[in-house]
Each structure stands twice: as C-alpha cells, then as structure tokens.
Amino acid sequence: MARLDTREKLSILADAAKYDASCASSGSSKRDSRGGTGVGSTEGMGICHAYAPDGRCISLLKILLTNSCIFDCHYCINRKSSNVRRARFTVEEVVQLTLNFYKRNYIEGLFLSSGIIKSSNYTMEQMVEVARQLRDVHDFRGYIHLKTIPDADPELVHQAGLYADRVSINVELPTRQGLTRLAPEKDEKRIETAMRNTKSDIADNKDARKKYRSAPRYAPGGQSTQMIVGADDANDGAIVTKARSLYDRFSLRRVYYSAFSPIPEPSAVLPLKRPPLMREHRLYQSDWLMRFYGFKPQEVVAATDEKGMLPLDIDPKLAWALKFRESFPVDVNRATKEELLRVPGLGTKAVGRILSSRRFRTLRLDDVARLTVSVKKVRPFIITSDWRPTLLTDRADLKALIAPPAAQLDLFAHHGPKAA
C-alpha cells in the first residue's frame, strides 16, 4: 500500500463510507462538557448529515478505518478483488481527526465502519480502541456509532457497546439465498447471533441501571442494521417482512435501506443498473407505517402489486387505502385513533390534533384542512359534520384525482421519510 498522508486517506475513506446509510444519531444519551472538563457534546447543532426523529441535523465524521478487506462480497466496491485505491487509518489518526473536526465545530460525533483486515477480531479490536481512546483518554462526550463485525469475538462486540452510543450490524441482504449468492463468506446465522447478543447486552444493562445507578451505559442508542435493495431479486414484500421480523426479534432502533449502486468493474452476477431511488423511498415509508401507524407487515404487503412491489407513483398508505376502500370513509368526529391513522394524508401529528380538537367541538371539513397539510388527499376518505364523500370513494379514477404529480426525488434527502 502506497504511503499516503492523512488528507489523502480521508479523501479515500470518507468516500468509501458513503454506501453505508445507517448513520442516524437518534437515541443517544445526553452528555456535555459544561463545567470545564471533557470534549464534545451530543447536544446542539454543528461530513455526513444524519437526522434525528425531531428533525435535528446531526453532523458526523463518517469514515472507514480501512477500505481493504479480506472478504469478496460481489456488491461491495471494497471487496478483495476490486481494483480501487486502498488506504488505512491508524487508531491515533482517527482519534485526532475526530477531535480536530469537533473542535472546529464541523461535527458532533463519529460514525466508524471498516473493511476486514487480517481478521475480524483484529479489525474489531482497532475500532474499539478508537472509541476507548476518545472516551477514556480524551474524555470525548460526543456521539459515537460503531459498525461492528459479526464474526468478531462476542466480548469485543460487547466492549464496542460500552464506548459507543449506537452499534450496528448489517444483515446486508433481505434473504438467506441472496446473502449466500452475493456474499458467500458471510453467514446469516452468525449475523443474527451477534444481533441477539447485542439485544441481550442492552436488556441486561437496562436491568443493571435500575438496580445500580453507577452502572455504565451500554449502547444507549440501541442497535440498527442495513439492507441493500436491488442487488438481488428480493421484492418489496420480502424486504418489508424481513424488516418487521428484525424489529420484533432484535428490538432494533432502525432498519435502513440502501439502494444498490453499480460499482466499477462489477461482478457478472450483479444487475447492470441501480433500482429507482423512489423504491428506497417507498420502503422507508412502509417502515414508517409499521413503526408509527400500526400497520402489520402483511397489510403493507397487501398494498404491493402482483410482483410483490410497492407502487412508485403513490405512497404505500394510499395504495393500501385504494385497495381496501371498504374501510372508508371514516368519521373524524367518532373514529378511533387507529382508524384515523389509516386515512391517507393524516399524519400522526394531525391525528393527535383531531383527537384533541374534537373534545371541544364538532369538526367540519375546514377544521380538518387547518389541521393537515393537504385536505385534497384526505377528503375522499373522511366524513365531517358538513362533508360526506358520497360516491367519491368508489370512483374508478380516484387515484388520478388525489395522486401527487410526478417529481424528481431529491438524491440528498434524509432517510426515513414520514408516511401520511
């Protein structure tokens, strides 16, 4: 490997980290350096931008420890057989970069991942040492997210959670068949065992903190994972079902979706072009429906077409409503919260305002219009004191009447778009 200076390494390893989507920083514990000691904070505003659920923009130094790797996953630009320029940071270089970037107010934390060098254990030891030095030597109190390596010794992964706010382990692909075909050196059982161990460690730590206030925190931001979309032939229905299973079995904070991006000198088993970015967007919306709107995975799957794919021209909630029109219209003055959450165009905040407002007055259509972003989308599915859609809900051209106009998806929009 050619000798590179830190700036050159940063250029290579920051670019190599762009394929990892799972770098949101929500759920971290609150720490600050008020009082004159310590460096950094998990609070406030600040080269990667992640978004918390409340909309705050979090700036993270997002890099790989190295883009060298002993694995040869077909979809990865950093795979062993890939002809890319290689670089590797030392532990001290990552520590100093993080501190220097923070002191210049460029970042609020670190997202660190890595290719696998020498062995899984050696790589994991290096990543843990970065976090340990930041916390114990430099008293860094900013956010740290470590992408752990499932093949590493469980004790090393456990140590990562002692220093990091969040840990994540990528499941990579939605199906075991896809993983076996495109990443033969990775094993679904080993990945899930690592996730199960982390779930257990987080639960044990919560119990310990109830009994002993001095017990150290363990990954207070929980764990997350990422799936690549479009590299194999898994349809949206399979991806949604897999995601719900991961949430239920491992208590994940987030499942992230990353649209497959063709890489230089690709393997012959990979598709020639990337899936539409809108597909990734719709999967995030379906994820939101399951997490915040009470939809079961089979209900989201019911909104897919005969090939198991979510429509790209309308959001999954509207697609479900158009397929199950017998559930509508609902009376906003009498419907339950669960029924209101299924109305296209009504978000969680709007539903909360409706439930609060109707305690004091009978709601009219104008009232609903003031409580939501667009009443056009809502009208065919609701009843108010002065509005009843009559035959509107049953119209064959209803989709055309309320579907939003086609628009270019913003390549740099943040992950996790809300459904409504």
Structure description:
- By secondary structure, the protein is of the alpha/beta class.
- It has 2 domains: 6-275, Aldolase class I (TIM Barrel); 293-420, no CATH class.
- It contains 15 helices and 9 strands.
- The strands form 2 sheets. It has a 7-stranded mixed sheet with strand order 1-2-3-4-5-6-7.
- Helix 2 (91-103) crosses helix 3, helix 3 runs parallel beside helix 4 (154-163) and helix 7 crosses helix 8.
- The longest helix is centred in the middle third of the chain and has 24 residues, at 188-211.
- The N and C termini lie far apart (50 Å).
- 43% of the residues are buried.
- Residues 25-34 and 36-46 have low confidence and may be disordered.
What does this entry show, briefly?
With 420 residues, the protein is of the alpha/beta class. The chain has helices at residues 6-16, 91-103, 120-137, 154-163, 176-182, 188-211, 236-250, 277-292, 297-302, 316-323, 337-340, 348-357, 365-371, 375-378, 398-402, and strands spanning 48-51, 57-64, 109-113, 143-147, 166-168, 223-229, 254-259, 330-331, 382-383.
